[in-house]
Design a protein that fits this description.
Radius of gyration: 24 Å
Largest sheet: 7 strands, mixed
Distance between the termini: 51 Å
Strand content: 15-25%
CATH topology of the largest domain: Rossmann fold
Number of helices: 19
Shape: globular
Structural class: alpha/beta
CATH class of the largest domain: Alpha Beta
Low-confidence stretches: 1-8
Strand order of the largest sheet: 1-11-18-17-14-16-15
Number of domains: 3
CATH architecture of the largest domain: 3-Layer(aba) Sandwich
C-alpha cells in the first residue's frame, strides 16, 4: 500500500493542533550484486530456497571483509538484511570446517530467540547438521550439557556470558578452543554504563579465548549512530575493523509528520494529551486494515493505549486479536505469538514500549506512531524505521507537553539536520574495572605483568592482596575467596 493511499487518512484539517513538519523521504532502489564466487553450492541452494538469488551490496561487502580475516562493523537501517552479513560468512566457514564454532551475543533474550528462528530457516537447507541453540536463563537444564558439547552456534546475552559461560569456561572448552567468530548484534545499544560493562566482559572473553588458543573474528551489527567505528574499536580494543555503512537494501517512500497537540492552557503550556491525539491518528489506520505500530514511553501507557484502540474498533470484530500490546513482562510464548501475528498479517495494530525498537522480525508495517519523543535521535529513527521497508509508509511523532518534546516538535530542522548521538563508553572506570578484574581472576590466574585488555591492573591486584581477595605466588595472582565474583 503506497504512501499516497495512506496519507489522506491523516488529514490535518481533522486536527486542531499544529503540523510542524510534513517531510517526504524519497524511495531508494535496491543495489544488488551477484552471490560471491566462492560460496559453497550447498549454501547457494539454501539461499535459493529462501528466495535469495543475489545479495545487497552491503551484504557482499561484509562477506568479503570477513573472508579476508578482518573484524567488521555493519551499520545500515532497520530491516536492511544485516543478519545475512554475518550468517553468510559464518555458515560458509562451518561448511568448510564443521569443527569451528561461533558465539552470537544479543542485548536481549527475545532478540536471540528471534534470530534463532531466522537462522534455523536458512540452515535447514544445508547438508550438514549445523546445531544452533540459545543459552540463557530460560534454557532447560537438560539442554545445557548438549549445547556446551555440541553447539556450532551458541546465542546468548551479555549477562549470561558474564555469569554463565566465562566463570565456567572449563565446561565450555570445546566452544572456546574452536571459537572462530563472535557476533555482537545491536552494537548501538552498548553505550554508557551498559556498554562499559560489556567492554570488560569482552576483555575477559578474549583472555579466555587466548588461553584456549583461539583468536576469533568479531562481527558487529548496528543501527545508525554517529561513531560506529570508534565505538567498535573501543568495545573490542581492535584496530583492524572494516566499516560497511552504505546500505544496498531498498526503501519505500516515507512520509514523516511532526504533530503538536493543541494548547489547553497557554499560560501553563498545557496541551491536549498526546495519548488521545495519537489514538486519533492510529485508530483510522487500524480500522482500515493498515498494519500500524504505536510506540509508548511506559508499560502503563501501552496498556492504556491498547484499551483506547480496542474501544475504537468495530465491536463486531475481535479487537483483542487485531490489536495487541507488546512489552517487557509478557511471557515469552505470548511475545512469540504476537511477533508471528505481525509477520503473517493476523495482527493489524501493535502497541509497544521500545521493546520492539530492536531488530526483532515483525514483518513490514506501514505506519508508525510515536507517543512522545523517545529521548534520542537514534531511537526516534529506529522506531520510525519499523515501518516501510519496501512499500510507502507514514511516521507520525505526537509531542507531549514536556520541554524536550516541545523543543523537538518546534525545531524539526534540528532533528533532520542532526546526526544520531555518539556511543560513548569508559571500560577503564575504576569501579567497573575492579569488579571485572575480580571476575577475571576467578576465571584464570593473572601473571605479574599481565593486563586486562588495555588496562594496567597491577596496582589493583596489590589492593586485592591487601584485602585478602587475591594471593600472589610464583609470579602469578590467584583468587583466594570463596565468593563468586561474577554474581
Amino acid at each position: 500500500m503506497s504512501d499516497r493511499i495512506l496519507m489522506p487518512r491523516f488529514d490535518p484539517a481533522e486536527f486542531s493542533g499544529e503540523i510542524t513538519l510534513d517531510h517526504l523521504i524519497p524511495a531508494t532502489a535496491a543495489d544488488f550484486v551477484p552471490l560471491p564466487a566462492d560460496l559453497r553450492p550447498e549454501l547457494v541452494a539454501a539461499l535459493a530456497g529462501r528466495g535469495v538469488q543475489r545479495l545487497y551490496s552491503h551484504q557482499a561487502e561484509a562477506y568479503e571483509a570477513v573472508r579476508r580475516g578482518r573484524h567488521l562493523v555493519v551499520v545500515t537501517p532497520t530491516a536492511s538484511g544485516k543478519t545475512l552479513c554475518y550468517n553468510l560468512p559464518i555458515l560458509q566457514r562451518l561448511l568448510e570446517n564443521p569443527e569451528k564454532r561461533a558465539l552470537y551475543v544479543y542485548p536481549t533474550k527475545a532478540l536471540a530467540q528471534d534470530q534463532l528462528a531466522e537462522l534455523g530457516a536458512l540452515k535447514s537447507g544445508l547438508p550438514i547438521d549445523v546445531r544452533v541453540d540459545t543459552y540463557d536463563g530460560d534454557t532447560p537444564p537438560g539442554r545445557r550439557t548438549a549445547i556446551r558439547e555440541g553447539g556450532h552456534i551458541v546465542m546468548t546475552n551479555p549477562d549470561i556470558l558474564h555469569t554463565g559461560l566465562l566463570p565456567h569456561h572449563t565446561r565450555w572448552r570445546r566452544l572456546f578452543s574452536s571459537l572462530e567468530f563472535v557476533v555482537i548484534d545491536e552494537l548501538h545499544t552498548y553505550r554508557g554504563l551498559f556498554g562499559s560493562q560489556v567492554a570488560n566482559v569482552i576483555r575477559r572473553l578474549k583472555r579466555i579465548c587466548n588461553f584456549y588458543g583461539s583468536n576469533p573474528t568479531f562481527i558487529c551489527a548496528s543501527a545508525t549512530i554517529r561513531n560506529p567505528l570508534e565505538l567498535a574499536q573501543r568495545l573490542l580494543e581492535e584496530d583492524n575493523i572494516a566499516l560497511v555503512d552504505r546500505s544496498g537494501a531498498p526503501r519505500g517512500e516515507r512520509r514523516l509528520v511532526f504533530y503538536n497537540p493543541p494548547l489547553l492552557n497557554r499560560d501553563l503550556g498545557v496541551r491536549r494529551s498526546s495519548m488521545l491525539e495519537a489514538r486519533r491518528v492510529a485508530a483510522p489506520w487500524i480500522r482500515a486494515g493498515v498494519q500500524t505500530i504505536v510506540f509508548c514511553r511506559s508499560r502503563l501507557q501501552v496498556e492504556v493505549m491498547l484499551s483506547y484502540l480496542r474501544q475504537d474498533l468495530d465491536p463486531r470484530l475481535d479487537s483483542s486479536r487485531r490489536v495487541r500490546g507488546y512489552r517487557a513482562g509478557y511471557l515469552p510464548l505470548h511475545r512469540r505469538e504476537i511477533e508471528a501475528g505481525l509477520r503473517n498479517g493476523d495482527i493489524t495494530g501493535v502497541v509497544s514500549t521500545n521493546a520492539l525498537e530492536l531488530g526483532i522480525d515483525i514483518g513490514t508495517l506501514q505506519c508508525a506512531v510515536l507517543v512522545g519523543y523517545p529521548g534520542t535521535i537514534a531511537s526516534t529513527w529506529q522506531q520510525l524505521g519499523r515501518a516501510g521497508r519496501r512499500s510507502g509508509s507514514v511516521g507520525v511523532f505526537v509531542a507531549s507537553s514536556s520541554p524536550l518534546d516541545q523543543f523537538i516538535v518546534r525545531h524539526p530542522e534540528y532533528f533532520l539536520g542532526t546526526a544520531p548521538e555518539e556511543g560513548l563508553i569508559d571500560p577503564d572506570n575504576l569501579l567497573l574495572l575492579a569488579a571485572h578484574l575480580q571476575a577475571g581472576l576467578f576465571e584464570l590466574p593473572f601473571l605479574d605483568d599481565e593486563r586486562l585488555g588495555g588496562a594496567d591492573v597491577q596496582e589493583l591486584l596489590h589492593l586485592f592482596e591487601e584485602d585478602g581477595s587475591a594471593t600472589r605466588s610464583a609470579g602469578r595472582w590467584f583468587w583466594s575467596r570463596q565468593a563468586f565474583p561474577a554474581e
